[in-house]
Amino acid sequence: MTILDGKKLSNKIRAEVKNDVTQLQERGITPGLAVVLVGSDPASAAYVNMKSKACKEAGIYSIAHEMPETISQDNILEIITMMNKNPNIDGILVQLPLPKHIDTTVILEAIDPKKDVDGFHPYNVGRVVAGLDGFIPATPYGVMELLKEYNIDPQGKNICVVGASNIVGKPMATLLLNANATVDICHIYTDDLKKHTLAADIICVGVGVVNLIKEDMVKDDAIIIDIGINRLDNGKLVGDVDYANVADKCSYITPVPGGVGPMTIAMLLKNTVKSASKREVKEL
């Protein structure tokens, strides 16, 4: 069994990003990332702080627009319009989930697709589905880079994606399909999940359910990509896979923490630099 070390790879990518930022700065451009945080959810605030710290280490200018939970949708849209017009901001991301009185779709569609470094705007979703250049959601993007680093080729593999969210499951399935895999997508309404996972060469799971994937649901030498992250009552972070019992049965597996998580921030930084590079092309 080989552990897919996302922390090690993310450090490598972040070093590459820092070098790219230095080269852009030498040409007069500092990549800029703006984050919108609505409310005081501890997990969301922690993610924003991690992103800000990562930006600082890479030399990326970052700003966080922190707003009260009671803010109106129109006020959020005003902030996004302002950032769309700001030539020094290359990436805009809205920390999800948003409060219930806010229409998430309206907010995400308001972001300039050229600054949509989260890859959630329908424009970028469509381009990714079509196999065209666009911003790829950071978590699925990170998974693909992790597979590439360990020379795991999805082509011809039977892959079960457990979870069908717009943020992880759907784009994950799309990227794997684009890589010529045979993709099986499972979700909360799937009948007999075990039947699907047992047939898979690779299982990608990200639904937020502790120990959802158990030993008897995985075939020998399967590859497990655990995208889930859950905090137990004792404070320990775990994924969606029963790691202790499943790991020895696998050929490769991601740990939680230290697997997919670090890759998400690394790929967000990479997307931001990609956007800044396109700004440079316009200015030439």
Structure described in brief:
With 284 residues, this protein is of the alpha/beta class. It has helices spanning 6-26, 42-58, 73-85, 104-110, 122-129, 138-149, 169-178, 193-198, 243-246, 260-283; strands at residues 2-3, 32-38, 61-67, 91-94, 158-162, 182-186, 202-205, 223-226, 230-231, 237-238, 252-253.
List keywords for this structure.
284 residues; Rossmann fold; 2 domains; 3-stranded parallel sheet; 11 strands; 43% helix; globular
What CATH calls the topology of the largest domain is: Rossmann fold
In CATH, what is the homologous superfamily of the largest domain? NAD(P)-binding Rossmann-like Domain
Strand/helix succession = EHEHEHEHHHEHEHEEEEHEH
Helix content, binned percent: 40-55%
What overall form do the CA principal axes indicate? globular
**Share in β-strands:** 15-25%
The number of strands is 11
User: Ends: how far apart?
Assistant: 50 Å
Supply the number of helical segments.
10
CATH architecture of the largest domain: 3-Layer(aba) Sandwich
Arrangement of strands in the largest sheet? 1-11-8-7-5-6
Total tally of structural domains: 2
